[in-house]
Amino acid sequence: MSDVVIRPVIPADLSDLRLAMVELQEHERRLDETTRLPGEQIADSYLERLQREAAEKHGAIFVAACDGVFAGFAVGWIIERDHIPESADSNRFGYLSDICVMPAYRRRRIAQRLLAALEQHFASAGITRFRLFTLAANASARAAYESAGFAAYEILYEKLVDRREIR
Fold first, then answer.
1. Sequence ranges of the domains in the chain
2. How many Cβ atoms sit within 10 Å of the Cβ of residue 109?
3. Cα 55 from Cα 80, distance rounded (Å)
4. Residue 63 above 90 pLDDT?
5. Coil, strand or helix: which one is 121?
6. CB proximity list for 36: less than 8 A, separation 6 or greater
7. From CA 23, how far away is CA 100, in angstroms rounded?
């Protein structure tokens, strides 16, 4: 197997991160084209937001490199909220915002290694819970998350509102 290194992002990674952002967005658009905008349309502003959130909320962006070539990334940060019904450790948790393994590097457990790097980052900050969202139709991502030890916690349902006028 090729040598895979997981490391913090560096400025030289930004063009690869942008390409991965487009890849991730287009993958999700194929799963749900009604809610996802084109990757090229959102890549720059979304990448800026991810960098800002990670910097401001004690997060991290990790890059996977395979034999020195960019293979993917994961980004997450700490969320602190005041949801009265939940315990303190449930109100302060690590959050995976985005993860992408480039197509040529999939099925090599790189996603699990990226998740493990973020989990270590969160553990070093005293975090005991690690959460994420994924599209229900993204079976491959769901399988990867479950393989990494994640389990369903809350399930978000959606219904399109019938906007026809009531007579």
1. 4-147
2. 15
3. 15
4. yes
5. helix
6. 25, 28, 29
7. 8
* HSE of 35, CA atoms in CB hemisphere, 13 A: 8
| Distance separating alpha carbons of residues 39 and 98, to the nearest angstrom | 14
Q: What single string gives the DSSP state of each residue in 41-106?
A: HHHHHHHHHHHHHHHHTT-EEEEEEETTEEEEEEEEEEEE---TTS-HHHHEEEEEEEEEE-GGGT
Q: Class of 4-147 per CATH?
A: alpha beta
What is the pairing mode between strands 92-101 and 130-132?
parallel
- Say which residue the tokens 């994961």 belong to: 74
* pLDDT one-digit tens code per residue, 121-132: 999 999 999 999
